[in-house]
Amino acid sequence: MNALAHPRVLVAGGTGHYGRYIVQSLLAQGVPVRVLTRNAGSARRLLGEAPELVEGDITDPPARRAALQGMDALVIAVSAMSPRLVRKTKEIEGDAVQALLAEGAQQSVRRVVYLSVYEVKEEISERVDLASGDAKVRVERALARSGLSWTVLGCAPSMQIFFAMIRGDTMMVPGGGPPALPTISALDVGEIAAQATLRSDLSGRRFRLVGPEAIGFREAARRISRVAGRPIGFRRIPLALPLLVRGLVRPLTPLSDRLLYVYQMLGFVELLNRFPPEIASEAPQAHRLLLETFSYRPTTLEMEARRWLRGPGQGRDLASTTTSSPA
């Protein structure tokens, strides 16, 4: 295993669902971390005093240059899935990220770790019209042409997706979800991404980030119920209803950012229910490769459930849990 000597790391998207854990894991290893953030005050409250913060937007060239100055490595965990940013998804997750890569190559950046979708399936992204998936496909292509030392981490949906569906004592799932869904804890993403950033022997490799097993929502509800010590039922909401709403919303998306956000989120619901079974069946091999390559303790669903119970509400952000489905 080869390691970068005394690297300085910039994390773009360092306050996001995965990014905050990447920052924590890097700091725990004594690595100097800088975070490019739109709101330094919020970032400081979330990340603490340890990381250096550069306030600015990734779409702003001066902010990108200031953030990159003096950095040896770059981690990109950028997402635009919020009502306020969704209309700029291609600009933020595509154009700005590619510009950041080009500018990093001109400065001192030697290593890039990019968080992408679990599996690149361009035809699926086009069919359900998902801007985020399309942007990530284009970034992966740019990385392959860049000449940088890069590693792509294709993240399965966050394990928090199971908890995001729980309302009261029932897990309510549009379409019921696939029979088996690969997921991963944000804790594991943080640890793996940190290790990948500090290693120089993983250049040009793409890993699928997945937890110990792929399971369906009904089974997840049963197991979470056991950990919680209370019944958590399962209810399948007919998929026809969200698909009908998506069709009705589509003509109105130019008029409202929130309606565009709803349209995109319903697209992720559709994509979730179409998760390719052949990819789900390959999750055990992908997980074994992670265990052979990285040193970490995998988080099980039961471990994640206990974490969820300690912090009520952390599973409520559906957008942050679904943006890593196949593109």
Structure description:
The chain is an alpha/beta fold. It has a domain at 9-158 and 183-213 and 276-322: Rossmann fold (3-Layer(aba) Sandwich), CATH 3.40.50. 47% of the residues lie in helices and 16% in strands. A seven-stranded parallel beta sheet has the order 3-2-1-4-5-6-10, with helices on both faces. Strands 7-8-12 form a three-stranded mixed beta sheet. The protein has a two-stranded antiparallel ribbon with strand order 9-11. Helix 4 runs parallel beside helix 6 (131-146) and helix 9 (217-228) packs across helix 14 (301-310).
Short descriptors:
Rossmann fold, seven-stranded parallel beta sheet, disordered C terminus, globular, 15 helices, alpha/beta, 327 residues, 12 strands, single chain
Summarize the topology:
Elements: E1 9-12, H1 19-28, E2 33-37, H2 40-47, E3 52-55, H3 61-68, E4 73-76, H4 89-106, E5 111-117, H5 122-128, H6 131-146, E6 149-155, H7 160-164, E7 166-167, E8 170-174, E9 181-182, H8 186-198, E10 205-209, E11 214-215, H9 217-228, E12 233-237, H10 240-249, H11 257-273, H12 277-280, H13 283-293, H14 301-310, H15 318-322
Parallel strand pairs: 1-2, 1-4, 2-3, 4-5, 5-6, 6-10, 8-12
Antiparallel strand pairs: 7-8, 9-11
Helix pairs in contact: 1-8, 3-4, 4-6, 9-14, 10-11
